[in-house]
Structures are given as structure tokens and as C-alpha cells.
Give the backbone structure.
Amino acid sequence: MKNIRAFRFTGPCGSGHRSWSLTSLLQAVRFAKGLSWACTWSMLAACNQEGMLGLDLLPENNRFPTITDSVELVGSTVMEDSLQSQLPSALLMGELNDPSFGKSSASFAFQVLPTSENIRLADPDSTLTLDSLILSISLAGYQGDTNTTLLLRAHEINPTVSSSKVYFSRDPVRTTGTPLAVRNFRYRSGLVQPINEPADSSSGTVVNVSGVLRMRLDGQDAYPEGSILANKLLSGRDSVEYRNADAFVQFFKGLWVEAIMHPDAVNNGTGLLLQSNPLATKTGLYLYYRSGNKRRRLNLMLRPVSGSRNIFRFDYAGSTLLHDLNRHSGSDSSLQISYVQAGSGVKTRLSSDSLYRVLRNRSGMDSLNLPTGNRWVIHQATLEFENADTLDFGKIAPPAQLFLVPLDSQGRNMASLMPDLFESYYDGYLRNGRYKFGITRYLQKLMAEGPKGYDLAVIPGNPMGNLARVRLKTKPRLRITYTRIP
């Protein structure tokens, strides 16, 4: 018998991983006779870092030959459900447009809160004068074409976005009226802006900042709603409204910020999506005012305890995605592409039943009944999807990682049903133009129990924090290494 590699003992009977020598392994097998079937299966089915089970246990005389096989699978593109979008890892605003995926847009709503409690804007007998109200958004990155001109709109919302509630990606936002402000915006990386901030004297001092989008909301651009809000915030001078976070949310519910491709811009390209870190320190409202002859600033910021959510909209009219939606490569040989899109867009769906039938056929199990013997042992299984796009497709990089997960009867993603998900060999990262998934334990379970109606889906990583998308070539390759026992 060949040298035995390290085995990993995982499962309901214990936690953690352990390396086994030949002696220890034989002792463990004898010990396993007294354990539950689930625990024994967990030990024997667990894989080492390569996802290879039992290859070093094969007889030297090759009595049971190991076969590496490859089969073609069938799939389709289906709509993704609206997903939970509260407290995302990145706040998004912008619009992307291309012939393949159509038009996709993202916007975000959030609470702003005072940075401290029991704030007083000035002494009771002081005269307050509005200087300006500035919406500030820290920018962390972008997707798309920086030649795009965006049209930004800021709205006051009601009700608020609560940090303790669940929101879904396509739920609409309710606003209080017309926009607070509208402005054009062109993204420029590293652009430094001089800002006149309050100082001890009435003249103020100039501070240079970068990576921040600033937008006036005080009615200077012919939008009176902004002026109304600015004076409303200034009127809370007696500290009742600024007593604490709960009191302020009753006073001001929050903001919704959206950005679309400017309809009158020339050569707007494929659009632009801006990303903001929700934990950034410069996202919120700055209220500048004068108390007597002193210039002051009130900070109302997006804080870690603030509620926030992303909102996504998709328009597939005229796109190739709409033409290919719900077509199935098993019955339509002309179908060449399937699609994956973040933001609760679309996903690629694979039939687990067709996969099961193909595998049974390859193993020589012509009967549709489940196998009763240990006639076919899977040592390694990988599923590979080829990226159909070039690196600069739509000036948007494809997702760095995808996930392959089972679907329930309602088409919802069920990551908990993928036993390989947290194994090091699972992978899913884009390498050399392919996404490869190690699914050894999944196929072992599939052959033992049957498909049970759970199809597979390819979905993006971090679906609420970006609008990444990729086109995949149909008929991905499943590569299996197994032993057939007569």
C-alpha cells in the first residue's frame, strides 16, 4: 500500500482538523465502528487540501483502475430574487449600460446622525445665519468608464432607514418631495479640493481634501427643497432635536442619493458606478452657519450605528441577456452564453437532475434506482466555467470569485447545502480565464442520495456591494477522478 496522506477529521462528532498516520488511521477506523454513521462518513469523506480522497489507498496492481472523466452539463440564465441589501459593505450609486446586460443602476439611502449628544448650535440669545449645507460622500472606488458624466440627485426620505430592519434590493424608497439638489459630476481620481473650514477667526481656514464628492443642498442651484432642509436643521438650536440619535431621527429621517448617466452628455461610454465605504468618516451633511461673527460647522454623519441600504434597478430591454433569459442549453444548441450579475440581477442555473443522470450513465448504472453497493468511488471532482469576456469587457472587471450553491424549490440560494463550501479546495476564483469549483463531497452526496430537486446556481460574491457581472460559456466541464469496482 502506498504512503497515506494526511486526512482531515471533520463533522458532527468533533471539531477542527487532525493529521493521521497509518497507525492512527487504523485505530480511528476501529474507533469509528462505535460512532454514528454521520461521524464515520464525515471522517472517510473529508478531503485533504487537494480534494483527493483515497488515491493513495489504491492497490499497486491497478486492479481497480482510476479514471479521469469529463462531461458536459447544461444550464440557463434565470432572474435572481431580490436580496437583502441593508448595511452593505459598500454604498453604491451610478448606472451601467451595455448591449449584453442592458441598463443597471444602483443608489443608496442612509441615516445621518449627530456626532455627539446634547448639541447646542449657539447660545440662546445668539443670532444664527445660514452659510451653506453640504452633502459629502467619501469615494472608495468605481466601476466603469470615467469619461461618463453622471447626473446626481439627493432626496430627503420618509420613513427612515433603520439599522435593525431588513430591506430588499428592489424595494423602492419613499421621498418627501422634489430633489434637494441636482448636479453634474465627472469622476477624477486623486482630485484635491480646497475647502474653507471654520476657524477661531471669522475668516476660516483652507483645508485640502481628496476622494470626496461634495454637493450643495441649500437651494443655491434653484432647488428650494434644499434651502428648506438647511433652515430646518438650523432651527434645532434649543438642543431638543439634537439631544440624542433617537430624537434626531424623529427630526430628520435621512437621505437617498442616486446617479444616472446624464441624458444630454456626448460619448458617455458604458456608464459609471461609484463606491463609498459606509464606515468612512466624511460621508454625511455639513451645516455651515454663523453665530454672531463666528463661523461654525455642525457634523451630521453616516455613523456605524446608522441605517443604510442599497437599491438596484435593472432594465434588460434590447439586451442579449433578455434574448437568452430562460433558454436552456440542453434543448437549444445555439445557446452559447450564460450570465451572472451582482446586485440581485441574474444567475446561471444548472440542472442537478441532468448532472445526476450523466454521472450514472458514465458509471455504468443504467437503472434509475439509487445504487445499493459501493460500485463507484469519487476521489476528486471539479467544475470549470470559462469566462466568455475579455478583461476590458464594458470596462468592468469580472468578479474575482463566484460561488456555486444549490437552490431550493423556490429557486433561492442555499449555501448550507454545499458541503465543500468551506474547504480550501472549493476555490471559485478566476484564474487563467476560468472559474473552478471543487465539489468532491457534493458529488459523493449526490450519487448517494440523488438530486432531491436541488439545482445548482452560479452566483457572484458580495452581491450587494457591487454591480460586477460576467458572461460564461455554456456547457461547463465537470472533471471527475473515480474508481469503478466490478
